[in-house]
Design a protein that fits this description.
By secondary structure, the protein is of the alpha+beta class. The chain is 51% helix and 18% strand.
Length: 138
């Protein structure tokens, strides 16, 4: 056989192998990036709830609006709105203005995570992430 014949087949074989392996490789890399985005969003939502709860337990906090504003600010790269933040005192039995030392403040922050896959293919399945923090009024 001729040496040129083997070189042509070798190049074609490499192209076929790349065509078979490349989609799997890109799927793996894309999955890792999406998983990283999901974990980052989850941690940011939890951090936001924790920061808002810290604000809520302080005596000089003016009201629920200040707590919600703190949660929105702490979730800065994510699009969390004040309506996504829920503040409860003693399980909802006490108003924010009537809270006293020893009461339990629970702040819940929700965020809808939309994977890039949904954005690319048009169907946007969202995953609701919820951060929760409960602290005692000082």
């Amino acid at each position: 056989m001729n040496a040129r014949f083997f070189r042509k087949n070798s190049a074609a074989q490499g192209l076929v192998e790349f065509a078979l392996v490349a989609p799997l490789f890109f799927l793996l890399v894309f999955g890792l990036v999406e998983g990283g985005r999901l974990i980052y969003s989850y941690n940011t939502v939890n951090h936001s709830a924790q920061e808002a709860a810290r604000t809520a337990i302080l005596e000089d906090t003016s009201g629920v609006a200040a707590v919600r504003d703190r949660a929105v600010a702490a979730a800065d790269p994510l699009s969390v709105s004040a309506g996504d933040v829920d503040v409860e005192i003693n399980g909802g039995g006490t108003s924010f203005a009537d809270r006293t030392i020893g009461d339990r403040v629970r702040v819940t922050v929700s965020y809808n995570f939309v994977p890039v896959v949904g954005m690319v293919f048009g169907a946007a399945p969202s995953i609701t992430l919820t951060g929760d923090s409960e602290l005692m009024v000082e």
